Amino acid sequence: MRNQQIEKRKNGEYGVIGDLTFDSVVEVEKEGFDAISESDGQLKLNLAEVKLCSSAALALLLSWKRQAKKQEKALQFTDTPPVLLALIKGAGLQVILDV
After folding, report:
1. Residues contacting 74, CB < 8 A, separation 6+
2. Read out DSSP for 8-60?
3. How many of the other CB atoms lie within 10 Å of CB of 60?
4. Spatial separation of the C-alpha atoms in residues 75 and 97, rounded to whole Å
5. Which of 8, 74, 84, 89 to pair with 15, CA 20 to 30 A apart?
6. Cα dist. 89→37, 57, 93 in Å?
7. pLDDT digits over 30-50, tens only?
8. From CA 77, how far away is CA 46, in angstroms rounded?
């Protein structure tokens, strides 16, 4: 089993689990695209279980936002861990990523 994945939860929310680094974001990006496509117009991605992350995580979140916008769907990130929040704020992306 991989160390990172996206899982659908009973409440309709999706959880992002594991590391978001240069080694993992390509596969996880596709799973996020699938979740966006399957959503009914509004999607919540819970980031509470993201462990290790790098600047690649920022590119990933922006990619998901672009994909959601292209499909005219709302995407919200919830429970952003402090390490990822620090990267987002350091890059000045908190308004764009809505965290």
Report:
1. 41, 42, 43, 68
2. E-TTS-EEEEEEESTTTHHHHHHHHHHHHHHSSSEEEEEEEEEEEE-HHHHHH
3. 21
4. 9
5. 89
6. 28, 13, 6
7. 999 999 999 988 999 999 999
8. 6
Both structure tokens of 1: 């089993």
Beta-bridge mates of residue 77: 45
DSSP H or E stretch at residue 98: none
Residue 30 CB-half CA count within 13 A: 3
Tell me which residue has tokens 């996020």. Answer: 32
User: Is the pTM here over 0.85, yes or no?
Assistant: yes
Contact 53, 24 (CB under 8 A): no
| Beta pairing partners, 5 | 17
Question: Is there a contact between 5 and 18 (Cβ–Cβ < 8 Å)?
Answer: yes
CA-closest candidate to residue 70, choices 32, 98, 16: 32
